[in-house]
Fold this sequence. Notes:
Layout: H1 17-43, H2 68-97, H3 105-128, H4 133-158, E1 164-166, H5 170-196, H6 212-239, H7 244-269, H8 274-297, E2 299-301
Antiparallel strand pairs: 1-2
Amino acid sequence: MRRIRSVKRPARFPVTTTLLRRLAYANIVANTAIVVTGGAVRLTASGLGCPTWPRCTDESYTATAEMGVHGVIEFGNRLLTFVLVLIAGATLLAALAHRPRRPGVVPLALGVVLGIVAQAVIGGITVRTQLHPSIVGIHFVVSMLLLLVAYALWRRVVEPDGPRAPVVPSALRALAWLTVVVSAAVIVVGVAVTGSGPHAGDADAIRNGLDPQTISQVHADLVFLLVGLTVGLWLALRAIGAPTRTVRAALTLLLVELGQGVIGFVQYFTNLPVLLVGAHMLGSCLVWLATLAVLWSTRERRPVDAAPGGTSAPAEEPLPAHA
């Protein structure tokens, strides 16, 4: 009787938990970076450096020498989208290949991929509408939503797979949620402030018609409310003896808000210099991420019990302190 040889399957590249963590963290960094580079496009009046989409011109997918520095800046920002797609795609593949597969990780990784694709489409609409301030604003808000999904993905990878449990009283959880809502409102109104200001991305782009001084005052009032809520949350957490990581997260948010506030006031009273406006855009991302960190710190996921059928995330070396 003829012996049938068994076919040996090629060894699969092992996806460790550490690799998955690093890829998830890279999504946060990359999506923050493209907000800053997108701001550079607007602040250098390069928004229509490539006047059409998906091509850079009607005849070329790339910038040409005749388009000058504005074409280079705008096309360079478009190329960064491909970097984001590569990072997000690698994260999704790693989430699918990781064993044991982590609950909730794959949908979040897929959400990041789809969000980046949506952003590319919105970016194209922005160009085709000649940088209409409403579309530009939507572009920025979706970036903040992408950061939310990317942060949720990273935290889901870092945490164990057990059930969630609050670590502070429900009243303080509600205060943390209110802080998130006000932080989001600050971002949205900040977008309206930008749409009324001078940095339109192109000399011929229209503005939203709002009075810059009035909408800036509304924005400042919301910032004061956000800082007040954060101070109250920090003091309340200290008073009840909340976990150190929760108190530290609230203090970090407060410090980031104060730094962002200083930049905001200085840029307002110095006629919006481009470097400070760019720093303010980076600060918006940092405030948003710090706000999310506070919310996540008010609960924890506990390791899965070593019961029949239960598995917990494999323990591996932690990420460096900066991650």
